[in-house]
Every structure is written in C-alpha cells, then in structure tokens.
User: Fold this.
Amino acid sequence: MNGPILVTYATRTGSTVGVAEAIASELREYGLPAEVRPMHEVTAIDAYGAVVAGGPIQGHEWLPEAIQFLKSYQDALSRRPFATFTLCMAMAMDGADRYRQGVAEWLAPVRRLVRPVSEGLFAGVLDIKKVPSFGYRLAFRLAVAAGAWKEGDHRDWGAIRAWAKALARDLGRAPAQDAAPARRPALPPTEDHAV
Assistant:
C-alpha cells in the first residue's frame, strides 16, 4: 500500500468525528499512517493508499453527502482498499444483533458504488437536542418514551478499536495474534453528542 490512509467522514451532529479519530489512531498504532478529514474537505484521493469512509444512518440510508463522496471518487476508490464504518442507533437497541443484517442492508447503495473490504457497524450517540431535524427529534423523543432507545453515548470503543485492528490486519500491517499493541491511544473526547 502506497501513501497514507484517509479516514473520512460525514456527520450531522458530531459523534462520527470521534469514531473516525479512534479508527485512525488504531491504524497508526499498527504503523499505518492515517489522516482524518471530513468528506466536504476532501478534494482528491490520489495521494492515499487506502480510504476508510464513514457516516451515520439517517432514514435508513447513509447521509446524502457521504453517497455523493462515493459517486465523486468512485473510480479512484475502486482502485485502492476501501472500507466503511457506519453509526446507527438501531445498533444501540436491546438485542442489536437482530438488527445488524437490516442495518447492513441499508448500505447496499454504498456497495453498488464501491465494494468495501470491510464494514464496521456501530451504535452512535443520541442527544435529541442536537438532532437538526424537527421530525427526527420528535421521532427520537417518541422512541425514547416508548423505551426503544436511551439518550446518551452508545459508542462501543472496544468494538470500534477491534474493527480498526482487524482492518489494519487486512491491510497487512497488524499482528495476526490478539496481542495488544505496546501503547494504547487515549480515547477520543466524547463531548460530541449525537450521530
């Protein structure tokens, strides 16, 4: 792999940033140079040896700007290792494993554009006051009142790091055994409060 790994993201309210930073930190831990940039700041990907792109699910699909990023760079992405990570509140529900396949199916439009070598599915953060759309705020309030979700940070940093370690291994740089790296990076700040 030539060049650093681009870890790029789209977000509505900020929690995807912390996940992107944690993934990049873990990749660096295994000797892979990684840069974190929001999708709207990316103007070219030719200098990157691999791309990890992520965002939240809203309305059963990736954010429109994330899909547009894939469309804009589809040809270049198809010529390098490409992985995705997705935050979805369905992954925070009781029995989240039952919903994993459905959430994965919502990524079909991503796979039609570029086939990922790996997909990470994670719970996000629910801070209703930060949700920009009135309709979504109302839906989340009703779901919380019904007991389907709880407000708060549901990101599983252990699962995120484990996925990033497996990704580093897939890219040929992480150790095959389950040994931890010599130094664990600090967790990213958790003040970002919604997917």
The radius of gyration is 16 Å. Residues 5-125+153-170 form a domain with the Rossmann fold fold (CATH 3.40.50.360).
